[in-house]
Amino acid sequence: MMRPTILNLTAAVIAAALVLASCSTDGSKPRADGEIVLEIATFGDWGYAPYIEQWEAKHPNVRVEYETAGGGDDQREKLLNFLGQGSGLACVEALEVDWLGEFKGFSDRFVDLSTPELEDRWFDWKSEMATTDDGKLIGYGTDIGPQAVAYRADLFKAAGLPSDREMVAEYLGGDNATWQRFYEVGAEFTAQSDAAWFESVQGAYTAMVNQIEYAYENEDGTRKDLAGSEIERIFRTVLEHGTGQQQSAGLAQWSSDWNASFKRNDTFAVVLAPSWMAGVIKNNAGEDFVGWDIANVFPGGGGNWGGSYLSVPVQCEYPEQAKDLAAYLTSPEVMLDLVVKSGGGTPSQVEAMSSPKLLPLTNPFFDNAPTGRIWADRAAAVKVVPFKGPNYKKVHDVIVAGLNRVDVDKSQSVDQSWAQVLADLASLN
Amino acid sequence: MTTTHNPATEPGAGASTRERRRPHRGPRRRGTAAGLDLRLSPYVYIAPFFVLLFLFGLAPMFYTAWVALHEWHPIGGQGAFVGLDNFTAVLGQDMFWKSVFNTLSIFVFTAVPQLVAAIFIAAVLDANLRAGTFWRMAVLLPYVAAPVAVAIIFSNLFGNQFGLVNNLLATVGLPQIQWTGSSTASHIAIATMVSFRWTGYNALILLAGMQAIPRDLYEAASIDGANRVRRFFSVTIPMLRPTLIFVIITATIGNLQTFDEVRIFGGAGGNGPVGGADGQWKTITLYLWEVGWRQANLGRSAAIAWLLLLLIVLIGLVNLLAARKIASENGAKR
């Protein structure tokens, strides 16, 4: 036997502490009499905490637990898994517009949320996207993602481009801004600067594809043959400018490199930003970062990227309370307050969008850009509501991987990558 | 056994006291009860293990086989019976073979340096260090950390443009490496995090093996004039063979199922493609999961699971043969 020493004991204590720390603890506390626990899960923190408290105050017998883990793709996997199992989900679960269509086929797993009083709360197209053919509403709309051009005024200036937000909008084409003009200015910028023009080909591609009504699927949800399609043209256009002319920073969106790049001064000059991206840019760059601005313009005539819903799976024990909570969190008052306080996001509620509180909003991080006006204008400029059926997300993932093979990994040519996209799509099902 | 009283050789001794209080039942009856007890109780004693094995091991395995023969959606459940279509579809896909290659490649990149390092660490720990227990616990600490946490931190270190490893490479004037770009680079990055977790664990097992080596062998070798290095290669390594075989087999099985590290590496916070845009580091388990829960095709995913099982059995057999051969060589030497 070895003589136990202080060092040994310390090591044992440290090891034990690490074991304990690495075990996840179950957060459920003993329930008071008659108290029910309602879980709500969103991908990322949607800032609901204060509004959940308000709702709890009105429902003293309900305690709400807010889970904010994971990204959108994680959320989709979770739903695919636990909707099938019939248990394991929170009472209120977030849905994202890109894969909402996939779950409409399983609307029997969701509580029908349609309520006559709330019928006119959202823009028609927002609710229609979450309504099944037989009239069931599976999600209450939260926000939408109208897109504008977020840009680095300092880099623009250094490259000899206009840096004032109105002039930038005008320079990119104003109301008649086109993608061609966007890439032309990009070439002009990259000739004068060490920085790339935009952050990722994925961002540019997503913006372009969201302007197409039937991108990957036909009206009945069946998959299109993409060879020689508009999608192939966009795929090639984005890569030709992004990788070929080095207008892209060569980053994969949401990767650790991409996150870290916002802290750098000279990586890229433009993010094709939906309104919720404003918060992402600010968080990644850090509050003190100076230089970002937003121009009230978007190439190709307005675009919308993303936007979410709150749903109630039927496996929830307390569907009435869950429905009430989801309705409260998607009410115009809450959404408006959230947008006013966070400076990001755009409501999908008619009343909130026309509120006099919304238009005067400015965002100090973006050099006090009049974001209220900008997002409202950008939302109004959206002309196409893209159809996203059961196959949209799967196809989109395959194409994004193809873009990144060329632009991020630099392991394939555009032709090779597109050929593999077609092969991968063929083997999907 | 310390006692010479062996129930198995004395008929009736195993019968209960209740039986003994009723002599009128006769010896024949007592013999049967005792016999039953003798024959059955061993099975009853080991039954819990087999019940659990069946519930959590075999039953899911056969259910998976059933799923693999159908179209199967995670939510929609069982669809049409398709026979072996799922298997042929999987075997016909380049990505499947790529994932097999990736799995084996990451295994080689992990196992070889890890074993060498583990033996070295074990040899150092086997020497008379001060505060030996402290050092032994210290090498085990990485094993205690949650694999996902390790993977997240290492993924940041191996960032393509702003990772610490590339910064260090740039500082000493070496070219930066696109870690998520090529198979080889990504495999090395992943092997690093897997090794970080498992080297200490294996070192401790090898250390236990080393301490079981009779010390008189070393004394004899010293007297014969063998120096430290010679003693290590001529005494320690040959005597360590059985332990090495154990470590290699467990490492093989563990590596064939690598998931956490490859899932997190190059990841995008729960968004985007998994295992690389070209599947550069998509292992079999990651591919299985992607097909099942990203492509929503559980039937095909189940087929991959069975192919993985076959691969593990195959590699296990190779391991076993190699181990037998080594063991018999070992025996011949004694």
From TrEMBL, chain B:
InterPro entries: ABC_transporter_permease (IPR051393), MetI-like (IPR000515), MetI-like_sf (IPR035906). Keywords: Cell membrane, Membrane, Transmembrane, Transmembrane helix, Transport. The keyword Iron-sulfur does not apply. It is a multi-pass membrane protein. It is found in: Cell membrane. Residues 1-31 are annotated as: Disordered. Pfam families: BPD_transp_1. Residues 19-31 have a biased composition (Basic residues). The keyword Cell division does not apply. Residues 100-319 form the ABC transmembrane type-1 domain. The chain crosses the membrane at residues 43-63, 104-125, 137-158, 188-210, 231-253, 303-323. It comes from the Bacteria. Its main location: membrane. Gene3D superfamilies: MetI-like. Belongs to the binding-protein-dependent transport system permease family. This is Carbohydrate ABC transporter permease. It comes from Saccharothrix xinjiangensis. The lineage of its organism: Bacteria, Bacillati, Actinomycetota, Actinomycetes, Pseudonocardiales.
